[in-house]
Amino acid sequence: MKAMEPRLTRAVVEWTGWGTAPAPVRDDARVIAKFGATAGPALVKAARRLEADYGFGSEEFRLRHPELGTDAVDALAWASAYDA
Fold first, then answer.
1. What does the radius of gyration of the chain's CA atoms come to, in whole angstroms?
2. What pLDDT band is residue 56 in, cutting at 50, 70 and 90?
3. DSSP strand E in 16-70: where?
4. S-S: 75 plus which of 2, 16, 38, 52, CB 3.0-4.6 Å?
């Protein structure tokens, strides 16, 4: 099993705007500003990949991605709800 990655969870939350924006923002620049030019782009890529994998089912997604904290899964669910 993968260990939880707090930095990835924080990056997904930052990227979506969960808890700070009235609607999903999917802002690469926010993640890069927070995590730097070295780690930021890789975290953005991971956030985009996770969003593509999320779909609309958090139960199965949670099983596939135990490395993510609850906040990241909630952020992706919130962002996906706007796309519906």
1. 12
2. low
3. none
4. 16
